[in-house]
């Protein structure tokens, strides 16, 4: 007759422990919500917050609430966009060489060169950021120096991308000019956001 009673006691204990564990353990959904809130708030410091949030929120599980990881992911995103833009301009240049306005062709070649430089600079920034480790490693002086390099290279990349669109100012209006400038501007916005997030992180860790 004691067996049912013992079984009920065991069942009650198991249920109580499970409920207590569930209360203490944050759910994946809550973690993800906290991460997306962190990204949304951080993106508020950028010039293009909506673009920042929509492009980075999909990586919330990897970013968590880490500002260094957020900046690094943003850099990876703009690196990918810049590489695609370079490929696009390269293909467009080969097509335009057969009959496009000479000024258009010249602007395309310059734009290709500028975006190629930007890709190299962003790639260098990503490598430098990875060397810091998530959260930043090393002494304060070393951290400031390395973050300064990241900021300098990302700024240079943004300048190169802006030089691309500036080169089309004297080009007659045409579909090529409109398409390249629109796409380049979109990439510039990603780069600007990434730089803003880097600057925000640097301000927190380097007094």
Automatic annotation (TrEMBL):
Gene Ontology MF terms in the entry: pectinesterase inhibitor activity
Domain Pectinesterase inhibitor stretches: 34-197
InterPro entries: Invertase/methylesterase_inhib, Pectinesterase_inhib_dom, PME_Inhibitor
Signal peptide start and end residues: 1-22
Domain of life: Eukaryota
SMART domains according to UniProt: PMEI
Keywords from the UniProt entry: Signal
UniProt protein name: Pectinesterase inhibitor domain-containing protein
UniProt family annotation: Belongs to the PMEI family.
One Pfam family linked to the record: PMEI
């Amino acid at each position: 007759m004691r067996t049912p009673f013992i079984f009920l006691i065991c069942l009650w204990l198991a249920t109580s422990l499970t409920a207590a564990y569930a209360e203490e353990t944050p759910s994946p959904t809550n973690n993800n919500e906290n991460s997306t809130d962190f990204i949304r708030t951080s993106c508020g410091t950028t010039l293009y917050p909506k673009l920042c949030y929509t492009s980075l929120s999909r990586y919330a599980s990897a970013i968590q609430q880490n500002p260094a990881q957020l900046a690094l992911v943003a850099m990876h995103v703009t690196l990918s966009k810049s590489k695609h833009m370079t490929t696009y301009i390269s293909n467009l240049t080969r097509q335009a060489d057969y009959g496009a306005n000479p000024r258009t062709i010249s602007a395309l070649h310059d734009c290709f060169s500028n975006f190629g430089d930007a890709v190299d600079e962003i790639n260098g920034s990503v490598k430098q950021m990875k060397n810091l480790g998530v959260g930043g490693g090393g002494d304060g002086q070393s951290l400031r120096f390395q973050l300064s390099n990241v900021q300098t290279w990302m700024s240079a990349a943004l300048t190169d991308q802006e030089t691309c669109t500036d080169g089309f100012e004297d080009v007659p209006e045409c579909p090529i000019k409109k398409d390249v400038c629109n796409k380049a501007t979109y990439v510039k916005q990603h780069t600007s956001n990434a730089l803003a997030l880097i600057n925000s992180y640097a301000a927190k860790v380097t007094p």
